[in-house]
Amino acid sequence: MENNILTEKQKMLAGKAYQAGDAELAKERLKAREIVFEFNNLAPKFIKQRKELLKRLFGKTEKMFYVEPPFRCDYGYNIEIGDNFYANFNLVILDCAKVSIGNNVFIAPNVAIYTAGHPIHAHLRDQEYEWAQEITIGNSVWIGGNVIINPGVKIGSNVVIGSGSVVTRDIPDNVFAAGNPCRVIRQLTDADKDFYYKDFKLEE
Asked: pLDDT tens across 93-119, in order?
């Protein structure tokens, strides 16, 4: 019977209520913070060393990726990034649940990706219960500056999220979405290929 009792980490990864003060989880967060501290405090020229630290920290990486320091996360091993990934300054990922990011994803400064949440009622919150839900981001996504992505959200492929948005619900493929709460503004089509900003075209 005892073998069926879940640890707090197992509860966290299963999307159940858990207590983050658990010793195992605290130890894993400390390990991640040590790596993140080293990453954030390396001199700018040490690009290769920073990349190796993220390979140790993240659950999955591909060949091409770059993350501008400073960066913050909870555990690291729940973060999976695709190829040709770029994140600008001050990315925060609270990865109490898995965060899966596809290929060719660009993230602007001050983006926050939160899988973690707390109970609404103070009775449970005061007992330090938490919960977490996975976040998925598809391929060829650009996330604008100061965007917040909330727990459980799925963002499709070929999507642009406008700066300052708070994403509280799923976003389908091939759209520009923005606002608080974030909502679809319009579809993206082949007609957008010729324009790099508003009505401006590339000169050939």
From this structure: 999 999 999 999 999 999 999 999 999
- Assess contact for 113 and 136: CB atoms under 8 A: no
For residue 22, is it within any domain?
A: yes
118 tagged catalytic: yes
**pTM surpassing 0.70?**
yes
* Residue 61 one-letter amino acid: T
Q: Which of 118, 119, 158, 164 is catalytic?
A: 118
Geometric angle at alpha carbon 57, from 14 and 110, rounded to 5°? 85
Number of compact structural domains in the chain: 1
Tell me, yes or no, whether 39 lies in a domain: yes
Q: Is residue 149 part of a domain?
A: yes
Tens digit of each residue's pLDDT (9 = 90 or more) over 120-157: 999 999 999 999 999 999 999 999 999 999 999 999 99
Q: Is residue 35 part of a domain?
A: yes
In Å, how far from its chain's centre is CA 120?
23
